[in-house]
Amino acid sequence: MEQSKTSALSRAFAHFDRPLFFVAMSLTLIGLMTIYSSSYLKQMDVFWRQILFLGVGWIIAISISLLDYRVLERFAWPFYGLIVISLILVELMGKTAGGAQRWLQIGPIQFQPGEPTKLAVILMLARFYARDKGASPKGYGLRDLLKPILIVGVPVLLIFMQPNLGTTLLVFFTAFTIVFLCNLKWRTLWIVVVTGLISIPVAYKFLLKDYQRVRVKTFLNPQSDPLGEGYHTIQSMISTGSGQFAGKGFLQGSQSKLEFLPEHHTDFIFSVFAEEWGFLGSIVVLGLFVVFMLLCIDVVRKSKDAFGSVLAMGCLAMIMWQVVVNIGMELGVLPVVGVTLPFFSYGGSSVLTTMVATGILLSVSSRRHIF
Amino acid sequence: MRLADPHNIFEMRSRAIYVAGVFGLLMGLLLVRVWYLQIWQGEVYRQFSDQNRFKIERLSAPRGQIIDRNGALIADSRPRFDVYFTKGADKDWESRLNVLREIFKWNEDDYKLRWNRLSRADRYVAQPIARDLLPHELALIELKSNDLSGVDVQVVAVRDYLYQDAFFHVIGFTGEIGEEELKRLRKRYPERDYRLGDARGVSGLEAMNEGYLRGRDGQDFQVVDVRGRKVNEDQWRFMPKTQRVEPRAGKTLQLSLDLDLQLEAIKAFEGRTGAAVAIDPATGEVLAYVSRPALDPNLFSKVLTPSEFVSLKAQKENPFLDRVVGEHYPPGSTLKLVMAAAAIESGVVDQRTTHFCNGSFRLGRRVWKCHKREGHGWVNVVQALAQSCDVFFYNAALAMGLDSLFSWSVRFGFGRRTFLGSEMLGDDLEKIYRFNSEQTGFIPYADWILSRRDSTVEAETVNAGIGQGAFLTTILQLARMTAAFGNGGKIWQPMFVRSMMNSTGENRTNYLSTLENTMILSEKAQSLVTQGMEEVVSGKEGTARASRIPDIRFGGKTGTAQVVNLEVWKRSAKKVREFEDHALFVGTAPMENPRIAVAVIVEHGGQGSRSAAPIAKKMIQYYLKKETAGGNDGTVQN
Lengths: 371, 638
Fold this sequence. Notes:
Number of helices of chain B: 21
Order of helices and strands of chain A: HHHHEEEHHHHHHHHHH
Helix content of chain B: 25-40%
Oligomer: heterodimer
Shape of chain A: globular
Mean pLDDT of chain B: 83
Radius of gyration of chain B: 35 Å
Helix content of chain A: 55-70%
Strand content of chain B: 15-25%
Distance between the termini of chain B: 106 Å
Number of strands of chain B: 23
Low-confidence stretches of chain B: 1-6, 235-242, 634-638
Number of helices of chain A: 14
Largest interface: A-B, 65 and 56 residues
């Protein structure tokens, strides 16, 4: 037993997915560099804390990658339960930020349960699909969606009530990607998509809070209110655009240094980078994310079991949807919904969630040869 | 250990390709968007970001100074400190507002007002929050500047009138530009860069010479962060050096007015309502220009609440009215000077002509009274002027005829605007400016009376003979008429801007008044009328003998203008002040070589000899005394 464990470990090292690690580490370092640039003038503590978060995050990621991911199947229910409870607690006694309850204070630690919710949902869906034998060979139909909807619905509803539109949408997209991967019938897919499109105006009218509606409106026409709600979008577009081909140079982006760009080390970090490194830098970062995505797809395809595949796809989808939504919002093509950019944005909860997902991807990858 | 069984793992592998395809497509779209922003539109956004980080601070230019003929400062420019508040990104702007509340000691209402305005305002737009800071408030703001991010003190140059209400009607006042005026001013002076809230001349010289008095604002380019805080330059060595454009003050105007004479005249008014104007007969320069009551123009550099403004407007004796040119009055007996000259020139009167005054004059069924009930007896023209005998002039007027009187009145400059202040406009007739809504006055003529059908030409001729009836004149017209008896018949367009120069005193342009008309008065007319004027003051029976000035040959003419006709006056139970006659006096001195001509009206002042003549006397006495002391020349410069 003892021996098999060590051999498993050494085998894990031997099969460690070095390209994936390299790409993820590159993104981390570029992100850290950008955090430095955006904070060195007035908030160096942000940089030091980000180093701490990333350090802890990578240790956790490497630890998870050495762990056999199948262990995680056992933690699915307890983890999920814990998350649902803390979401309820946030609802009852959470700290408010920007009109929404998102934070939970546990002793000295502030904690945002919205972030790990994504992981809990991924884990539960992976467990569900790995065990589910009920599907017909033709794939899952509409009726088979009931259980996944329940799994996803409970926490999503709680997050939506906070309200946190960004995380709600992300969990939903991630879950939907997983459901699609697990052989959802094409016909069902179209039904879901069409229903979704029809329900958007209804949701806009009845489900969104006033400030969210304003954001959507401003997104549709940011110039209508350049110094009020459209401010974020316009300043972010100015930051990115003013980088031009080669960028203004490291540490020389005026938009973020002079605080024209708001929330520049969290939600708008890509604009900081694009301002200083220009189109060339943007190609590199977007390219690295695409390579990361392709490597992860490879992990999904090469996994020997369904649990691993679904898990990897969940982590990949979670990260990539955040990338698409965040960058889209920074470039002014999507509404400002408060989604962070993985590997780049400052923040403990965000960094840890990304790192755990990376660890899981590395773990699934390094065990594709075991069986 | 559960082996990889999955029913659907192969399906998953193909599905994963779709997912890769979707993400790949989305990332491709983002790349296109990045290309669009950075390459296609990059130049535009680079310009935006440059504007973002440079704040163009306006350096408010002082308004041109206004000085009197001796170089004494009358209107200056002072800095006014205003506080602007930018909420900025942080949510805790209320605590900063509370710091301000303690500095300014706002009460609950003041605070609420500002809180309401700010809570509605955009986060990055500066809102005005306090005006015209006192020195200690400014010091407190500087002291607490660390707690007051987003609080910005701006300096605006505003007018400072050194003598409060003394020059209200000449210089006028400045006010803040509203939306409507902004459009008009931008069109008229496109190079002057007007903005909302700037000061602009509203009345008087301030309005007339707006284009000269307004300076050119300077600019200071600064690197700022989003709250408008200046960023230390050494920290940003890569940024372009800042350039500063110094503000240029407006032109200095030197008036022909004499500060001391003006103050002396105001003192002489003792708070009564009326007007006084003094001109130099030799040059047409206005020496004093007084209209009472007046307001302190400094009031308008502050922000008046609408109710304050209405209460100023609603004052009974409208202080906004310029009684020198903006209102016309019946000239009363002061017109007898013109009558006498006209009658002599027309040949109906000479030194031997006498009329008997028994206290009344009958024409058809109407009877006119002389102001002296018992009558003056036999009087010649000099005596008639000195004692202001009405009957003599009823006869003279009838003998001469109304249209003859009309043409002489025109020659003496009545019935048309003086175009005061047009000295700076040169020959450009299009620019002719109606200073302070100058009135034309009115001379009745036969056709006009016939067209009205409510009186006869004869009756109106009799009325006009003593300056009553439809005849109307401004006080300035009276003054220049008086001056014409001392300068050989010259009728000037009076002027009050002697010269204009840069704020440093360079590039001086001098102005001369325009000679409108020179009458050739016969020696006889000239000497008889001036003799009469002198008798008014120094004669034993002169109406203004109480206002004699020792050692100075001072001549003039009193006048009393009826406000309502005699019937109403008799019927009014109490002698209400509003029905009391206006007191007038015109005068000039010294008679051998007149240096100053004065016209005074005291509204509802009763007889001209009692209330108007003493004012004229004080002005003339003061001015001539000062002149002999050698201080009126205006060649002395500060």
